[in-house]
Amino acid sequence: MKSNKYILITMVLYLVLLFCSSDNPGVSGTETTNGKITAYVSVSDTMVYGEAPSGTRIILNSSDYNPILQDKYLDTVESGIDGKFEFRGIDSGSYNITAVNSEGSAKAFISDLIYRPVDMMPVSGGRDSGYISDVFYIEGELEKDAPDSVDAFVYIQGSPFFTEVSRTGEFRIESVPRGDYTLLVFYRGSWAISTSGNIASEKVSVSDSSITGIKLLN
Fold first, then answer.
1. Does domain 136-217 match CATH 3.20.20.140?
2. What's the predicted TM-score (pTM) here?
3. For the chain: N or C, fewer Cβ within 10 A?
């Protein structure tokens, strides 16, 4: 009877050790707080780098990036098995990061990263973070003074997010993560180059729901 008790205790200890030594199902380079997965980004004097869940698509672009013109810096990498990512060989300036999970269903937006190469004034330490969480949409109407034949777009400054405005003036930007943004209007064509009119803009804050009813007057 006593030997059976020892056998039972041995089996229990074996199972405990087996459980403790098993691979962690979590992803290296992330932290879960209240069920939210966090992406981290830091800036050194040689690169922009960070950690996110393995397989996360990381988009780094300049803070004045126009996704229609694509005339400023933008690059994309994927976080590795260890969750780490990095960008090297970039110019001094201000940058934003968009982190997109492997399914494309959740994103994070981290803005105003200041990068200075090693031969310039050093940057301060520390790191920024963002929750990779639900995405939303921004929709509204543009009252434009451009001819109907001119293509109009609404985009979020310094991000890859944009949409074309319909002929009746409606627009909707999909898959926008939480954040504070500036909406801008872009006209493509000779009319846009020759006009000296003001370009419409609107500041919006995406928190826990989509935004509707935006009125852009141009």
1. no
2. 0.77
3. N
